[in-house]
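Below sits the subject:

***
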Amino acid sequence: MSFLRAALHLGGLWALAFAQPLFELLGRNAEFFVARGSTTGDILLLAFGYTLVPPLVGAGVVWGLGLVRPAVGWVAMLVLVGLLVAALALPPLGDLLGGSSVSVLVALLVGAGAAVLYARAAALRSFLTVLSVAPAVVLLLFLVVSPVRGLLFPSDAGGAVAGPARSTTPIVQVVFDELPLATLMDGDGRIDADRFPNFARLAGESTWYRNATTVNDLTASAVPAQLTGERPQPNELPTVRDHPRNLFTLFERSHQLTVVEPITALCPERLCGSTRPGTGDRLQSLGSDLELVVQHLLLPDDLRNGLPAVDRVWEGFEAGSVDGELTRGANLRRDVLARLGRDDPTAGFERAIAALGRAGSRPPLVFVHSTLPHGPWRYLPDGRTYDIEGRGYPGLGTDRWIGPQWQVDQSFQRHVLQTQYADRLLGRLLDALRTYDDAVLVVTADHGASFVTGQPRRPANAANIGAIAPVPFFVRLPGRRSGKVDDRAVRTIDVLPTIADAAGVRLPWRADGMPADRRPVDPGAEIDMAHAGEPVLTEPLSTVTAKRDQRDEAEVPLLRDGVWAIGPRPDLLGRRVATGTRRVTDPFVSGRADGVAPGTAIAVGVNGRVVATTRTYRDDGRTVYDALVPLHDRPNTVAAFVVLPGGGLRELH
């Protein structure tokens, strides 16, 4: 068989089986490329390389073998045709057979039949010749028709925004990521000053809009909503091309900009430069993530269980589940999670603090979108980190929490500890702002997060909206240092109008938001939530705040004895035990519990005292446990104990 004919036939099948499903998914989630800093060249390399290189390599193998022995080349062609038809048939067969791995065998049989027909029926070969236009069609749909087209022609749009030429008002905005308001609140509806002293300090010197809510549950839409004052629209990307009128272009002439924007790209390169990672890092990130996407698209449920999830666009693809048994083993790909673990939110605050310490002819505009306290949870309150390998989101399935509630509570514990570190960084920023009495400061979050089993961690619905929609919203106006609580029905689209109003600037475009102090106090206000610009649900503010308070009430008993006490037997904390000589340096302690029933309470002792309790669970056919424990600077010895029915302890070896 000629090289050209083999390439045309294999190219058509490859495009339908592999390229089209992948590009259709990425085309609908083009912010995937924005978060990874992908360039036009990266996207084109992916598109043309993934579509054309594999079938060309296959055709080269067929042609090369055919030169040696025509029959061998023909057999190789039949094998490749059969495999590609099997890959094309596998997804629908998986759906038809209920996700059973039996669909793989059936798909291979279909592929074998197709190979036989290809060998015997000239009509089928002629059809594949016609199908050879598929790669061109797939590339056209991905690069020209899908929202990805907006990334291929980057623009520094926004120069026409009629912002002020001069200003005397410093501007500071901090957006925390995935921070539900309930996390910060105590049982009395105040900011928990013991656990989060700097958020409480901020509340004491600013207006806390206690009933503020986000307009979107997705970072790539929620952050632009704050920066533009406009509601996200479907198919918009978090780029300056799609959002030319924003905080940065409004104040570019009057302020000295310092912008920490790790997920979105609304600050034009002419103002903020390029913050993209190196070419090698970008392509490696794309390759590792996309390998998992392809597996999700092709494999039936039985074989897809255990793969990291692919529903969390900017953060990569994280830990999944295995039919109720939580994955933690070597079968998971953790390279993406590790890459996220290397993200340095501390450095973002350092840049902001340094900018506030520099004198300049123009006042500073400092914007920090921190990836804290968003997972992967790896920070302790003092800034130390712990190993997250294989421990990304215990209890989290592909699209929702699937573990028992106690395990979700463990994830909540890690979330709180990481939020305490975010509080520490906020405190350092507030210290740097002491000399800026004339600054406007806004501190908020893009959205919240849910920690209830059976519910999605983030996509909003009627059950979890109380954890997703309410967000912190603090405004400190120039010259004011007195704190008050305000119950206006504020939305996150009010951030930019509030900043502009405080700086004495009228927005030169019609925004959907308004200055926060002009919102009415209206418990019946309709709180609409969207996902990537698509409406999800609308509920009265009173309903949303009632659900927020319900979540807060659930957190109070969890935290009654302190964040380290979250576990099934807080009454055992402090009991003296023998902890032997096993030393640990990582606060995430785990091990096997052979012969112990799943769900059994486990006590973990460090340096002679019980410091944490947890439960056993099944993972990869074994009974295991893990717990987060406080460690001291000195060498720490650890031991784990089964909690007996009467409260006694039996050491696990």
